[in-house]
Amino acid sequence: EVHKATVARNVLKQYRPHDHPYFPTEFYPHKRERAREKFEQTLFKEKPEYRELADQYAKYLSGRR
Question: How many domains does the chain have?
Fold first, then answer.
């Protein structure tokens, strides 16, 4: 029982609330946006064909909703 309390305390120390009032930080559309921003600065500059693929994938996903 002491071990459970110690583990729970350590887990709660690392907890950080999410910024958005309704969706958690692990919400896939938000993760995709952050990944897109990250790749815009690096990968897409080096290989523009990857940007085209990402655009096609985004278009595909937007049609599925």
Answer: 1
Does the pTM surpass 0.90? The reply is no
HSE-CB of 18 using CA atoms within 13 angstroms:
10
35 in any annotated domain: yes
Alpha-carbon gap, residue 24 to 8, rounded angstroms:
21
Residue pLDDT, tens place only, 18-53: 777 787 878 888 888 999 999 998 999 999 999 999
